[in-house]
Specification:
Strand order of the largest sheet: 2-3-4-5-6-8-11-12
Bound molecules: beta-D-fucopyranose
CATH topology: TIM Barrel
Largest sheet: 8 strands, parallel, barrel
Order of helices and strands: EEHHHEHHEHHEHHEEHHHEEEHEHEEEHE
Strand content: 5-15%
Structural class: alpha/beta
Shape: globular
Length: 463
């Protein structure tokens, strides 16, 4: 493999490297009538919670258009597709009776993917908790670990003969802290103890789910998808803030999932907030993982919160921190572009976890760009998104550089296959390789999609 030098040289990836793209159920599926309510349906109805009051009722209408969408993925040469299963679609009440039509939808999707030689990589929880379970306390309740394990076992039974590789959770930090501490995401609470309980019960649910899925089908390849990021602080905040945020954002998840224990300094920082952790839980969480999914968008930068800083910090052990706007290029959503941080993160994983680190997949990475006129279709129907290509190129060079330094990265999933519902941003942010015209549901592969198809086909970045 050619080392990444920062100069635009050709970079080859190891033989067998997997090239894919990712989406999530609530963000694309539509077919609202075909499933139970989830917490995001409820959150979208809350005035001011989501830009333009957008919701997921139709989204990309993917369940209706799945055959065309899979054909499009095949045309783009994707080898794998990371999707998520909507828990309330297969289990409308979260527990109890499964929905035959909901189960059938994913059978059909998996069959279509396999017919086109695309490996499905489903995630069981990408934030759309059944509202019926939220009404019973959601992941704030310890019992949620068993609700989730039962759901996971059902999925293993139902699909495990054809689908091999599964993730339990997607970015559990976001669901816990954006959902329950800062309230920016569903279910929209601002309760620090609740957030920590969710952070713990998600991991406990993950551990129980691994056990439950393996007891049904011992040979599945099981992982979890987290979103660690390098943390930087300016000199207006206590330097300890960097350690504290790194603790709850990064080490909490990595240490528990890979080493079977929470970091002692984080437990200390949390103090009484962590009373939900019971003896034996950490061992349950630390079940062997077949792979680890890393979602990376940008490094995190912090300054001190002031009287005019809006909202509440999601960082419960550093509540006086606020995001720092750094003077460097950013994507439309306001996230700084920091590919060197991505390389540093991957190298750190290897350095800090060594033999405990399973093979790594980059399960999400991508950029929101949509500024008119450049990134809407031009008169010839072409979407020129060269900035997105540059973002992908830079971040893939970072992955290659990490592989060169010994990190076992086995694959990469672009976020996202297509423009979709970007949570609290609604449809106002476009992350897709493929442009979606929401009025007609037409899909138009952007220049980046054609570029990515070539990368996947050749297993290398062009010089
Ligand atoms: C991640 C989410 C994904 C998407 C991207 C932009 O945090 O996992 O659903 O919204 O951000």
């Amino acid at each position: 493999m050619t080392p990444a030098t920062g100069v635009a040289s050709t970079v080859r990836f190891p033989a067998g490297f997997t090239w894919g793209a990712a989406t999530a159920s609530f963000q694309i599926e539509g077919d609202r009538a075909g499933r139970g309510d989830c917490v995001w349906d409820t959150f979208c109805r809350r005035p001011g919670a989501v830009v333009h009051g957008d919701h997921g009722d139709v989204a990309c209408d993917h369940l209706r258009l799945m055959a065309d969408d899979v054909k499009m993925m095949a045309d783009l040469g994707l080898q794998a597709y990371r999707l998520s299963i909507s828990w309330p679609r297969v289990l409308p009440q979260g527990t109890g009776a499964a929905s035959p039509s909901g189960l059938a939808q994913y059978h059909r999707l998996f069959e279509l993917l396999l017919e086109h030689d695309i490996e499905p990589v489903p995630t069981l929880f990408h934030w759309d908790l059944p509202q019926a379970l939220e009404d019973r306390g959601g992941f704030r309740q310890r019992e949620s670990a068993w609700w989730f394990a039962d759901y996971a076992a059902l999925m293993a039974e139902e699909y495990g003969d054809t689908v091999d590789r599964w993730a339990t959770f997607n970015e559990p930090w976001c669901y816990a802290y954006l959902g329950h501490a800062s309230g920016e995401h569903a279910p929209g609470l601002r309760d620090r103890a609740a957030a920590v309980a969710v952070a713990h019960h998600e991991l406990l649910a993950h551990g129980h789910a691994l056990q439950a899925m393996r007891s049904v089908r011992p040979n599945l390849s099981l992982g979890i998808v987290i979103n660690p990021s390098p943390v930087h602080v300016d000199d207006t905040v206590d330097p300890d803030v960097e350690r504290r945020i790194d603790g709850t954002l990064n080490r909490w998840w990595l240490d528990a999932a890979l080493l079977g224990r929470y970091p002692l300094d984080v437990l200390d920082d949390l103090g009484p907030l962590a009373t939900c952790v019971q003896d034996g839980d950490e061992g349950t969480i630390g079940q062997e993982l077949d792979w680890l999914g890393i979602n990376y968008y940008n490094d995190h930068f912090y300054t001190a919160r002031t009287a005019t800083t809006p909202g509440v910090s999601p960082h419960v052990t550093a509540p006086g921190s606020a995001p720092l706007v750094v003077d460097r290029p950013q994507t439309d959503i306001g996230w700084p572009i920091t590919p060197q941080g991505f390389e540093a993160l991957l190298v750190r994983l290897q350095r800090d976890y060594g033999d405990a680190l399973p093979p790594v997949y980059v399960t999400e990475n991508g950029a929101a760009y949509q500024s008119a006129p450049a990134e809407v279709p031009d008169a010839d129907g072409v979407v020129h998104d060269e900035r997105r290509i540059r973002y992908y190129d830079a971040h893939l060079r970072a992955v290659a550089a990490a592989i060169e330094q010994g990190v076992d990265v086995r694959g990469y999933f672009a976020w996202s296959l297509m423009d979709n519902f970007e949570w609290a941003w609604g449809y106002s942010q476009r992350f897709g390789l493929v442009y979606v015209d929401y009025a007609t549901q037409q899909r138009i592969p952007k220049a980046s999609a054609h570029w990515y198809a070539q990368v996947a086909r050749t297993n290398q970045l062009p010089g």
